[in-house]
Write a structure and sequence with these properties.
Elements (H helix, E strand, L loop, with lengths): L8 H11 L27 E13 L4 E12 L6 E4 L3 E7 L2 E2 L1 E5 L3 E5 L9 E10 L12 E4 L2 E4 L20 E10 L3 E3 L3 E8 L2 E12 L6 E4 L1 E7 L5 E7 L6 H8 L2 H12 L7 E5 L7 E2 L5 E3 L10 H9 L8 E2 L6 H17 L5 H11 L22 H18 L1 H14 L4 E2 L1 H12 L4 H8 L39 H6 L13
Parallel strand pairs: 1-11, 17-18, 18-20, 21-22
Antiparallel strand pairs: 1-2, 2-8, 3-7, 4-5, 4-8, 6-7, 9-10, 10-15, 11-14, 12-15, 13-14, 16-17, 19-20
């Protein structure tokens, strides 16, 4: 039954107020982290970057870096303030042409309060002027800036950009880049993409590099020093740029014998992964004391130590494979690292097959047999290894065995369609392991949940038949520790030692707090 309603004057006024639209939501600060479970402070909330324009001047003798970064972005919420990830000293910040307040907070946060709040959806232009000696700055017990006898290098994962430019430092916020670097005459500056110009004046030379395809911040690189720079093209016309420090010593020949095959190897990988996703390719070897390599986009960083035992094309294959798996298609969150490292390792296995030095199946069998069930190797879950084990050997080797298990489960025809189709479907984007599984199921027409759970998300040695390896591959149980059991009697594939030498590609990450 509907009852009658008597409205008093006061009640009428209240009713009128209730019909007025609610006041606009207040402007609030952007989050100081993007929300990645492994690195809570990485990246920032409240905006999305589309382009970085970075202008630098660097003096190798003193490690003095001066810079102006112009960042083009869009506000993704009503912003009262926002953060950038940065560790050098800041002189001035402008937001949309107006002077902004700024403060350094936490370990690597630059907190910016614009003169006017930023409405959701509005374009934002941020200019940051800064200076410092990046080689003297440490955060979390390490520095991502590598000093060399003739300059410096920026190449690190998962974080490294904060030592030379301010950014939203997480793979989910990709952008295009212009990097312009002024250095003393006789010194070169190398960055990602294509060298668009070079000019000299009053004892200084400026190098202008451009990356026109979306790039994650950690994949941006900068190398300053005295290099022998070579330019060429692949048979298909792709520009190739390689560079070598002029003081590599005994490693010089082996480094060149490996990295100079970049054009050949990228064409070979295209047969498995599809069209190369970028407009140039290359690699550089600076005189650094480190032992790792890094898939910095289009211009790969290699340590000379990678070639201390002679030429190593396997590591070049590994880093080139990342241009598809890791660079073009990047992780949505750092726990998805298997999508990068498992596939880069598997590319090495395919190269081993090509070179008749052991098939992918033989390598999978050898890995499986090398680690007894009680070995700590099997406690690392490649699909979610944890920040402390993100670059553990199991992510690479167990991760590659998982890919061989997928190949055995779906058959070669579907498997190679998956291998080539995935980078095309997710080109220039981000993805999760769950999305890859769904794609593999769609292409193969087979349910793969049990396989992915067994090989990527279970902290135990899978049964032999789950990998498609013979039961004789099973190693005795009970042994614990990290060292493999030398194949448990299986013959060692000829490529094994060369492949294992690339296990140091990310050793610098272990134990770092980010």
């Amino acid at each position: 039954m509907r009852k009658g309603l008597i409205v008093s004057a006061a009640a009428g006024a209240l009713a009128l107020l209730l019909t007025v639209p609610a006041a606009a939501a207040p402007y609030t600060p952007g989050a100081p982290g993007i929300g990645d479970a492994y690195y809570p402070n990485a990246g920032n909330g409240g905006y999305d970057v589309s382009h970085y324009d970075i202008r630098l001047k660097y003096q190798p003798a003193t490690d003095e870096l001066e810079g102006t970064a112009t960042i083009l972005a869009t506000a993704t919420q009503d912003l009262s303030r926002f953060d950038l990830d940065f560790v050098l000293g800041v002189k001035e910040v402008l937001v949309n042409g107006r002077t902004a307040k700024f403060a350094a907070t936490g370990e690597s946060e630059l907190e910016i309060t614009p003169a006017r709040p930023l409405a959701k959806g509005s374009p934002v232009t941020v200019v940051v002027r800064y200076a410092g000696k990046p080689g003297e700055v440490e955060r979390g017990g390490y520095s991502a800036w590598l000093r060399t006898p003739d300059g410096g290098v920026a190449a690190n994962e998962p974080e490294g950009s904060a030592w030379w430019y301010p950014s939203n430092d997480h793979p989910t916020d990709k952008a295009t880049f212009d990097v312009s670097v002024q250095v003393p005459d006789g010194t070169q500056a190398i960055s990602n993409g294509i060298l668009t110009g070079q000019s000299s004046r009053a004892g200084w030379t400026r190098y202008n590099w451009r990356q026109t395809k979306p790039q994650a911040t950690y994949l941006a690189t900068l190398a300053i020093g005295r290099f022998d720079i070579r330019t060429d093209t692949t048979p298909g016309g792709l520009p190739v740029v390689t560079a070598y420090s002029k003081d590599l010593g005994d490693n010089d020949g082996a480094a060149r014998a490996s990295v100079e095959r970049t054009g050949e190897l990228v064409d070979w990988l295209s047969g498995y992964f599809g069209d190369y996703p970028f407009t140039s390719v290359g690699g550089y070897v600076p005189n650094v004391p480190t032992g790792y390599a890094l898939e910095t986009q289009t211009q790969i960083f290699y340590s000379p130590a990678q070639f201390s035992r002679g030429a190593n094309t396997s590591v070049v294959v590994h880093e080139l494979a990342h241009q598809w798996y890791g660079d073009s298609v990047s992780v949505q969150r750092w726990s998805d690292i298997w999508l990068n490292e498992g596939f880069a390792r598997y590319a090495q296995w395919l190269w081993s097959e090509h070179e008749n030095e052991g098939t992918a199946q033989e390598l999978a069998d050898y890995v499986y047999a090398s680690y007894p069930a009680g070995n700590a190797f099997w406690t690392v879950k490649p699909g979610d290894p944890g920040a402390d084990h993100q670059f553990a050997g199991a992510v690479y080797d167990r991760g590659a065995v998982a890919i061989q298990a997928l190949r055995n489960a779906v058959g070669d025809e579907a498997f190679f369609r998956i291998l080539k189709g995935w980078p095309a479907e997710r080109k220039y984007g981000n993805a999760t392991i769950q999305q890859f599984q769904a794609y593999a199921e769609r292409v193969s027409g087979k349910p793969l949940g049990a396989l992915f759970d067994t090989w990527l998300f279970t902290a135990a040695k899978p049964a032999a038949d789950s990998a498609g390896v013979p039961a004789t591959s099973a190693a005795p149980s009970g042994a614990a520790g990290l060292a493999p059991a030398a194949g448990a009697g299986r013959p060692e594939p000829k490529s094994w030692k060369r492949i294992q030498e690339t296990n140091s590609v990310h050793e610098h990450e272990q134990g770092h707090a980010h």
